[in-house]
Amino acid sequence: MTNMFLGSIAPHLLAHGSFGINTDILETNVINLAIVLGVLVYFGRGFLGNLLGTRRAAIEEAITEAEKAQADAVKALEEQQRKLAQAQAEAERITAEAKVAAERTKEAILAKSTQDVQRMREAASSDLVAEQERVIAQLRQRAVTAALEQVNDQLRSRLNSDQQRDLVDRSLALIQGGGN
């Protein structure tokens, strides 16, 4: 590289006969740029190579970590989707069971209320029959009492005390005679 540099400067020096300042801006910028690039390549090759190698390794490591994180995220997403599907299936199962349980409960309540109504009708009917029998018994009792009072009144007015004693004695004899 150095030989190349001297090779490009030497004709210039020889053409002018002396060493001096070149005022041609385009030519000097190209030469200066070539010199700077040559120095950078020569001295900076190892440093720049190490720097680029380190940067490349860091980028490759970041890419590897990003790919791993993406794979983990995909697995986590699949797991969460699986859990969501399970939860939805469980929710549907619970809903179906709740509907069945509600239908059973409804049927049980209807059956129970039907039984209760039937039992109430039977109880009302038996209460009505019992009340009728009680009223009839009361009416019979009143009729018997009224009849006995009427008979007693008639007997008092028609029988004298000797007839009453005779009637009582005969009644007692009948009762005693029937008992033997």
TrEMBL record:
Coiled-coil segments on the chain, per record: 59-104
Subcellular locations according to the entry: Cellular thylakoid membrane; Endomembrane system
Main location: membrane
Keyword Zinc-finger in annotation: no
Magnesium recorded as keyword: no
Top-level taxon of origin: Bacteria
NCBIfam families registered for this protein in UniProt: PRK07352.1
Functional description taken from the UniProt entry: F(1)F(0) ATP synthase produces ATP from ADP in the presence of a proton or sodium gradient. F-type ATPases consist of two structural domains, F(1) containing the extramembraneous catalytic core and F(0) containing the membrane proton channel, linked together by a central stalk and a peripheral stalk. During catalysis, ATP synthesis in the catalytic domain of F(1) is coupled via a rotary mechanism of the central stalk subunits to proton translocation. Component of the F(0) channel, it forms part of the peripheral stalk, linking F(1) to F(0).
Listed name of the protein: ATP synthase subunit b
Organism of provenance: Limnothrix redekei LRLZ20PSL1
